[in-house]
Amino acid sequence: MSSSSRRQPPSWPSDIQYINAPRYHPSVPGPVRSFLISGTNPASQKKPISSPSTSLVRIRFITEPSHPARGQNGLFAVRKIFPKSHIIDYIGEVHCQDRAGSDYDLSLFRSQDGDNVGVDASVMGNEARFVNDYRGIRSKPNAVFVESRTSQGELRMSIWSCKDPIPKGDEILVSYGKSWWRSRIAQTDASPDFV
Fold first, then answer.
1. C-alpha dihedral over 97, 42, 83, 180, to 10 degrees?
2. Pick from 4-8, 21-25, 63-67, 129-133: least confident
């Protein structure tokens, strides 16, 4: 199924626009946008990814009382995911703005000219926006964020499985990074024991 024909998944939140390709905000300068869409960056190349896949994942509402994201959604494997496999691209609005208040903003690229490019899935995105941090759930993540280019050359932030397979039904969990948690602690003046 092509990415343009993919439909909104069941139980998609009504206040979030479902998209299956990045949207570029006007804050992204033309040369930076050109680089993101078709440039090359040999230092960051893992291997080209063909097309974003959502056939490996499903969004599920979390009801387990001990889960840190209870009452929210998570991203789960619908079948076994092999080690070091592309799971899904993190799709959202590509921008060059400070969006410190967004819990869904990832850093994609920093240019030599000082432009910081992010991907924000707070108001529009795909299933990847529901990936949770592993802390409080497992001892380590079973997936990682990886910067790579599609087969068409577009730079994306993707989610890949780690060195072990992810069994069918397991939640896909990444590390948000200590800086993400530190910024949230600073906002709430609370200190969880896992940072």
1. -20
2. 4-8
